[in-house]
Amino acid sequence: MRPLLTIAGHDPVHGAGITADLATWQAMGLAGSSVVTALTVQDSRGLTALQPAPAALVRDALQALLRDGEPASIKIGMLGSLEVLREVHEFVAARRCPVVLDPVLGATNGHASHDADRTEWLVAMRALARDVDVVTPNRPEAQQLGALDGPAAVVLKGGHADGELAIDEVVDGGRRAWLSTPRLAGSAHGSGCVFSAALAGALAQGWGVFDAACVAKLRVTAGLAQARVVGPGRPNMNAAALADSSHLPAFRWAERPREGVATPLPAFAPVSGLLGFYAVLPDADWIERALAMGVRTLQLRLKAGSLPPAELHAQLRAAVRAAREVQGAQLFINDHWREALALGAYGVHLGQEDVDTADLDALRSAGLRLGLSSHTPLEMCRAHALRPSYIAIGPVYPTTLKAMAYEPVGLQRLAQWASWLKPGYPVVAIGGISLERAPQVAACGVDSIAVVSALTQAADPQAVASAFMRL
């Protein structure tokens, strides 16, 4: 991947501006480049002076970078002067990579972030916003900018609002969503820079706006929680903070009223024991065979329409009955949540496409455990909003057993995502995992390895099950 590009001001205390952007990308494993638009005088107590860079110098620096190739994505921050803003606007209007605009209108202490007339500046900033892909204003900035009439997606950050939750609003292509995290006490210098840089980084990695906003919200929440004290004023954002489930945002599509977002849902019942080796099986006979092998975490996967109703119900009843007779067995019914509820099953496993139609309140009230599939940052955050009993990540490797709309996650991403979900959730890895690959998967920090064909198509299923259970 080509380096990303930050076009922003320089912060001597390394909390915001180009150095914060570059640190964010380094933490994401991404290379960065930079063009400085302004030099500032500031410490932990705030900005006291600003000197815009000459517009011609900014133009020449941008053109010089192009001689090495196009950037993978661009983040725009402080611009300093109208002349620089116009040069940057002309530059990004000719680019095809994702462009994120953090519309810095002023410093937190009230000092202006540019030397222009306010009205002229807002007109030029609105024009620039029409030629970028995502705009990331905080609430005071959004109030000054007013309605943006361009095609750009908007992430309205909620850090300046009140309430127990910090709620961001994401709008893109006619869809709207809410991202919420518990509001942390205090604030940190550079939070807007880290957010927009992380968003640009995730866009460069190929994620859409909603997924990228999830990544940015996660990283900025971790950075706030682990902010670094540098003086008597505000602490600096920690762009390299290690994120975990306490920083994970809850994602909800905005079909649900915003007021409902502020009330976290109750959690599903936790699993009874370690998940360990997880066998995903095609019928009740296989459930009984696996139980006899010593497997204690199982899933019955009977796809809708694959069996006549009477046979489907018979399979479900037989599997639930067999699991009940074995101490420590944890049987999850895939998809068929109504039947699982009626049979008093231990739990259900649902895909993201099933969440909107399942009666989750009824399942939760009945004490059933819930497992949810996830394939992207958005889906992990959406699962987190529902507070399930475990979250599955996959496919780890290519699989031919079912049509997948997602690329394989791979080991590096699996390890990172597992760390984001821990310690809040047991993490299940699934998809293309053979016995030979299993040790590498286990080393990624997951709690469970789920397999289908590695068991059901094995020449000696008992030996394979025993080997998996020894991992």
Q: Can you walk through the features of this model?
A:
The chain is built from 17 helices and 18 strands. The two termini are 36 Å apart. A ten-stranded mixed beta sheet has the order 3-2-1-4-5-6-7-8-9-10, sandwiched between helices. Strands 11-12-13-14-15-16-17-18 form an eight-stranded parallel β-barrel, surrounded by five helices. It has 471 residues and is α/β, with parallel strands linked by helices.
What is the compact description of this entry?
This protein has 471 residues and is of the alpha/beta class. The chain contains 17 helices and 18 strands.
Strand and helix map with partners:
Blueprint: E1 4-10, H1 17-27, E2 32-43, E3 46-52, H2 55-66, E4 74-76, H3 82-93, E5 99-101, H4 118-129, E6 134-135, H5 139-145, E7 153-156, E8 165-172, E9 175-182, H6 191-204, H7 209-225, E10 250-253, H8 258-261, E11 276-281, H9 284-293, E12 297-300, H10 309-324, E13 330-334, H11 337-343, E14 347-350, H12 360-365, E15 369-374, H13 377-386, E16 390-393, H14 411-421, E17 427-430, H15 438-442, E18 448-451, H16 453-456, H17 461-470
Parallel strand pairs: 1-2, 1-4, 4-5, 5-6, 6-7, 11-12, 11-18, 12-13, 13-14, 14-15, 15-16, 16-17, 17-18
Antiparallel strand pairs: 2-3, 7-8, 8-9, 9-10
Could you please say which CATH topology of the largest domain applies here?
A: UDP-N-acetylmuramoyl-L-alanine:D-glutamate ligase
The biggest sheet, with number of strands, parallel, antiparallel or mixed sense and barrel status, is: 10 strands, mixed
Helix content: 25-40%
CATH-defined architecture of the largest domain:
3-Layer(aba) Sandwich
On the 0-100 scale, what is the average pLDDT?
Answer: 93
Spatial sequence of strands, sheet with the most strands: 3-2-1-4-5-6-7-8-9-10
C-alpha Rg (nearest Å): 25 Å
CATH evolutionary superfamily of the largest domain = Ribokinase
From the spread of the alpha carbons, the general shape counts as elongated
Uncertain residue segments: none
Q: How many strands appear in the DSSP assignment?
A: 18
> Helical element count?
17
Helix/strand-derived category reads: alpha/beta
What's the CATH class label of the largest domain?
A: Alpha Beta
Tell me the domain tally: 2
Assembly context of the chains: single chain
